[in-house]
Input
Amino acid sequence: MVALSVPGMRIRFATSNPQDMKIAVLHTMAKYDNICKYIHLPVQSGSTRILEKMNRQHTREEYITLIENVRKILPDCAISQDLITGFCGETEEDHLETLSLMETVKYDFGFMFAYSERPGTLAAKKMADDVPAETKKRRLAEIIALQQEHGLYRMQQFVGQTVEVLIEGNSKKSEKHWMGRNTQNAVAVFEKTDEKIGDLVQVRITGCTSATLLGEKI
Output
């Protein structure tokens, strides 16, 4: 209903708990061009054992099946994650399962954190925060490094393509350049001509970093 009511406006479906992301939503996203091809799909851990301790409502296997459905129904969809490392009782094997899940999905973007107690939560009341700080720091660094590698890989897929970019404002590094996003939520930077904020423009991607597409308006 939203896609049909505002056909000239981009609709970005942001976050869904994995257990709530239904196949019908994916088919709807595929049906309408103005629904952005991007899903933020928090996973938190690649270990089913840790997911159970976190009281998450999905397993590793269920999450991978969901990713496979996204890839099948929305092959050009970008996927981002939330990951917590160093949760109570997390072993090195659990950590390696998280890294292997990242290798399986190759996320476009990610939001990664080391676990810290939050007062009032079940974990704080009933579980010991028993992963040493140095171990958390090292595991988080490994996760961030792998995400940067995968982010660069995903960005490189756009080089040579022409993408539609919604202009959001000036580039952080130059007032002579615009910054905007494509339908996959990737940031693109290109030189200004006669455009304005809010315009949808076609941009040919000529290069990239692990976080930004570089291009020129066509």
